[in-house]
Write a structure and sequence with these properties.
Elements lengths: L4 H12 L2 E4 H9 L3 H24 L5 E4 L8 H10 L3 E4 L2 H8 L13 H19 L2 E4 L5 H24 L14
Parallel strand pairs: 1-2, 3-4
Helix pairs in contact: 1-7, 2-3, 5-6
Length: 183
């Protein structure tokens, strides 16, 4: 939350000439209401179901940049779809930076609490290990501008492809198992 997923994703889509999708925006487009309304009327569990459906569909589209909501990694099927169908970039952001970036909005249902900082700490404790478990690369976004983060992602993903290619040259050929798809 507040890591810059949407801004960085849009920048990457321009630089790489790829289509950009945001799973939260897709849910809002399909339902016709915002995420806060879904949380209020249907609860977090129903939202997470909608989120999993959106991620399943969007992660099957080849050659796209996909930004997911902060809690998308909570569902094992989302982690598996993201890991298996593309390369995952974890935009790691400190609690302090998240607070600074999210303190002016009422559109963050999980932060509508008496102590948003503690809520962010609790969320981070659960989510960070999950992000790290599926990340192809991890990029810090603290006190950084979007173009610099996007450039580092492009460089990091290029390096990860080079490493994969080098490793696979030394392995026996196994049909199409190692094709990489961008998400």
């Amino acid at each position: 939350m507040g890591s810059g997923k949407t801004a960085v994703g849009k920048q990457l889509s321009r630089l790489l000439d790829m289509q950009f999708y945001d799973s939260d925006a897709e849910i809002e487009r399909i339902t016709g209401v915002d995420i806060a309304f879904i949380f209020e009327k249907e609860g977090e569990a129903k939202f997470r179901e909608r989120e999993s459906e959106a991620i399943d569909g969007l992660s099957q589209v080849n050659g796209v940049i996909l930004a997911t909501g902060g809690g998308a990694v909570l569902a094992p099927q989302n982690r598996e779809h993201l890991r298996a169908r593309g390369r995952v970039v974890y935009l790691k952001t400190s609690i302090e930076q998240q607070l600074e970036r999210t303190n002016q909005t009422r559109h963050r249902p999980l932060l509508q609490t008496a102590d948003p900082e503690q809520r962010l700490r609790d969320l981070f404790a659960v989510r960070a290990p999950l992000y790290e478990s599926i990340a192809t690369i991890i990029i810090s976004t603290d006190h950084r501008r979007v173009p610099a983060v996007a450039a580092e992602i492009i460089k990091g993903l290029a390096l990860s492809v080079d490493v994969e290619h080098t490793q696979h040259q030394h392995e026996p050929h196994r049909s199409d198992e190692h094709k990489t798809r961008e998400h």
